[in-house]
Amino acid sequence: MRQIVLDTETTGLEPERGHRIIELGAVELVDRRLTGRNFHKYINPEGKEVDAGALQVHGISNEFLADKPSFRDVAQEFSDYAAGAELIIHNAPFDLGFLDYEYSLLPGAHGAERWSAAYTIIDTLLMARDLHPGQRNSLDALCKRYEVDNTSRTLHGALLDSEILAEVYLAMTGGQTDLGLTLDANGAADAEDEALPLGERPTLVVLRATQDELAAHEQRLDAIEKKSGVCLWRQLET
User: Fold this and answer.
1) Where are the beta strands (DSSP E) in 31-79?
2) Cα–Cα distance between 233 and 238 in angstroms, integer?
3) CB under 8 Å, gap of 24 or more: what pairs does 130-137 form?
4) pLDDT category, 225, cuts 50, 70, 90?
């Protein structure tokens, strides 16, 4: 399975008021492994000034963006990169609202279907709210909960946040999900997992402790008994 974890930084909070994407970052997962094939662009908002509040969040200034490409210059490259993948986003309506708006501004896009409609979306914020109701589920809070290192996140950044979110998503959805005991609709194990007849089963190898290992074990029990006054292992043996 191919998945793209993405994040955006913007000039403000509302595409309805003409706010624009100024940074787009994404990382690729294939079969739950980071491939290192990332996408990262800073984007000129074409005259839309960065709000003061947004600047405090991500630190990306109008001056820095002056010589960067416009969204129309990177739109096809990003669509090619994301094509066919499942998208993983934290608070997906925010980022998708901006992406849909940006694609709607491209020549020939008027009346076209929303860009995001072609994709399956996983919203990790909704997932976290289901898993941890009533708790804080910001990206920083999830990093703390799942012990994901985010010490480099002094300011928001689209690529950095995508990398961190990928780790959080893998932690949230991790763990063994199939113990090889899957039953069919009739409650029977799959044919390839059925037990072998007794005569066809391989002989189990029994490894017994050597004399040196037994002696080391007794020395360890002596040390426990000396330290605590009692050794439960020896009580169980007797």
Assistant:
1) 33-34, 39-42
2) 9
3) 131/172
4) confident
Structure token digits, residue 13: 């909070």
Q: Which of 19, 90, 156, 217 is catalytic?
A: 156
What are the Cα distances from residue 85, in Å, to 27, 37, 122, 160, 224? 11, 13, 11, 20, 57
CA 166-169-175 angle, 5° bins: 125
Query: What domains are defined for the chain?
Result: 2-172 (3.30.420.10), 198-237 (no CATH)
**How is residue 233 written in tokens?**
């292992």
Mark whether 217 is an active-site residue.
Answer: no
**Other C-beta atoms within 10 Å of 195: how many?**
8
Residue whose structure tokens are 């860009």: 115
- Condensed to tens digits (0 to 9), the pLDDT of residues 78-98 reads 999 999 999 999 999 999 999
- In this predicted model, which residue has the larger pLDDT, 210 or 79? 79
**pTM score, two decimals?**
0.71
- To the nearest 10°, report the CA torsion of 61, 66, 72, 76: -80
Q: Name the DSSP letter for residue 83.
A: T
Closest among 46, 61, 81, 63 to 9, alpha carbons compared: 61
- Percent of the chain's residues with pLDDT above 70: 84
Residue whose tokens read 């932690």:
171
Question: How confident is the model over 119-149, as pLDDT tens digits?
Answer: 999 999 999 999 999 999 999 999 999 999 8
